[in-house]
Amino acid sequence: MAQISFDAIPETTNEGNQQNGVDFFNLKNDGDEAIVRIMHDTTASFNIFTVHDNVTVGGKRRKVNCIRDPHEGTDRCPLCASGMGIVNRIFINMLQYTQNQQGQIEAKPVVWERSLSYATRLKNLIDEYGPLSECIFKIKRCGAAGSMDTTYEIFFCSPKVYRDDMYPRVDTAFSNYSALGTIILNKNYNDLMTFMQTGSFPSAPAQAESAQAPQQMSYQPKPETATVSAAPVAPAYQAPVSAPVPAAAPPMPAAPAPVAPPLDNPPWQQPGAPVANNPGRPSPRYY
Ligand SMILES: [Zn+2]
Predict the structure, then answer these.
(1) In this structure, is residue 127 part of a structural domain?
(2) Which residue, of 119, 252, 263, 268, has the greatest Cβ tally within 10 A?
């Protein structure tokens, strides 16, 4: 199976670039940036799927949901049985903010497909900032178009500059959306068998009648597979919603005991931490 870069996915997997009103998130060129609100507040909301990618369906490369549990034998999934590889992907729901011709800021629902390492990145962001839908982030591409070494930096944006009234939160943006059944074809065993035998899926819309439970995975932190170097963070997020946002994100407390700090002594007020009321423009945090 040929490997394709993430950058090639939006152009190769779908007709058009939109599924159920949700666009693919895509930064095309080196240095491109986007202002976003990541619509995941806990790891339980992560959309992680095991898929067969690069399956040619109707002349297009598509992702197809793998219908077996990872612990089951490959005979439970006709695509696995045929030797097709599986990959784990996270599909990140975000609101992307763009300026229209009238100069108004518009929120557009987008989905960002990433490797599983981004689940750890998002978890680290949640540990640091709390529910992500309450924050604004800037995502910046580092890597030329087509480069296989492209990385993305995610910066926390100051709520003083990126105010909620200017960058509205749309809680219903993804209420009728799932990557499964749109970006990822959701087929049952019989459909997959038909596909292996004939090269195409039955024409009847069998997606909603899948007898197989969708193989959405729950997120399990695996520090050993993380691409970020941050140590596992033991304390749960405890800060109130209205907590002051530090001007510069403080370093992770290196406390030996994994005890959540008391609310009247959050990490950013500990001795040596940056002063929270720094009037200067905050410097972005790098991940
Ligand atoms: Zn499979």
Answers:
(1) yes
(2) 119
* 230 belongs to a structural domain: no
Task: Report CA(17)–ligand 1 centroid distance (Å).
Answer: 25
What is the whole-number distance in angstroms between the Cα of residue 164 and the centre of ligand 1? 42
Distance 31 CA to ligand 1 centre (A): 37
Give the Å distance between the CA of 52 and the centre of ligand 1: 6
Token pair of 179 as six digits: 């990557």
Rounded to the nearest angstrom, the distance between the alpha carbon of 228 and the centre of ligand 1 is 29
Q: How far is the CA of 68 from the centre of ligand 1 (A)?
A: 6
Q: Is residue 220 part of a domain?
A: no
pLDDT tens per residue, the chain (287 residues)? 333 333 333 433 443 445 668 999 999 999 999 999 999 999 999 999 999 998 999 899 999 999 999 889 999 999 999 999 999 999 999 999 999 999 999 999 999 999 999 999 999 999 999 999 999 999 999 999 999 999 999 999 999 999 999 999 999 999 989 999 999 999 999 999 999 999 999 876 544 444 444 556 667 665 443 333 333 434 444 444 444 444 444 444 444 444 444 444 444 444 444 444 444 444 444 44
Asked whether residue 238 is assigned to any structural domain, the reply reads no
Domain count, the chain: 1
Ligand 1 centre and the CA of 21: distance in Å? Answer: 28
Pairing of strands 33-38, 136-142: antiparallel
Q: How far is the CA of 189 from the centre of ligand 1 (A)?
A: 10
Which is nearest to 192 in space by CA: 56, 59, 8, 67? 67
Output the domain CATH number for residue 56: 3.90.198
Range of the domain at 54: 3-198
Phi/psi class of residue 146: alpha, beta or left (left: φ > 0; alpha: ψ in -120 to 50)? Answer: left
Return the biggest CA–CA distance within the chain. Answer: 68
